[in-house]
Design brief:
Layout: H1 6-30, E1 40-45, E2 71-76, H2 90-123
Antiparallel strand pairs: 1-2
């Protein structure tokens, strides 16, 4: 998209990650009593090159931010094992769920504010 919406695109990408992570964590909590269940979590990796643009003055200079694709990786949590070989720690999963929900809501509010700025700019007041 254009540069006008680049901030919103970044916020949308992160918000969708936290929504996916919330669903995965809810699945872990739902399977807390399932024998031999292995909890999973999502890991988000990205170097944000859109926010920092550096100019190369010499072609021999190294690129400070090489292009890296966004990766959402599903990782298995290897922590503790209960009597039924279930590795879900409900308190830990609830804490992660709260963190993920807060981040999602915060990103949505940021997106609303960015849209309000654009609406204000378009209205010409």
């Amino acid at each position: 998209m254009s540069e006008i919406f680049s901030h919103i695109d970044i916020l949308e990408e992160k918000a969708s990650f936290f929504l996916q992570r919330t669903k995965v964590l809810q699945g872990n909590i739902a399977n807390a009593d399932t024998p031999f269940y292995r909890p999973v979590d999502l890991k988000f990796e990205k170097i944000i090159t859109q926010q920092v643009k550096l100019k190369r003055t010499n072609p021999k200079h190294m690129d400070p931010f090489p292009e890296v694709e966004t990766r959402i990786e599903k990782v298995e949590i290897k922590n503790f094992t209960g009597y039924d070989q279930n590795r879900v720690n409900v308190e830990e999963e609830l804490a992660k769920l709260a963190e993920s929900s807060i981040m999602y809501k915060t990103l949505l509010e940021s997106m609303k504010k960015e849209m309000a700025k654009l609406k204000y700019a378009i209205s010409g007041r």
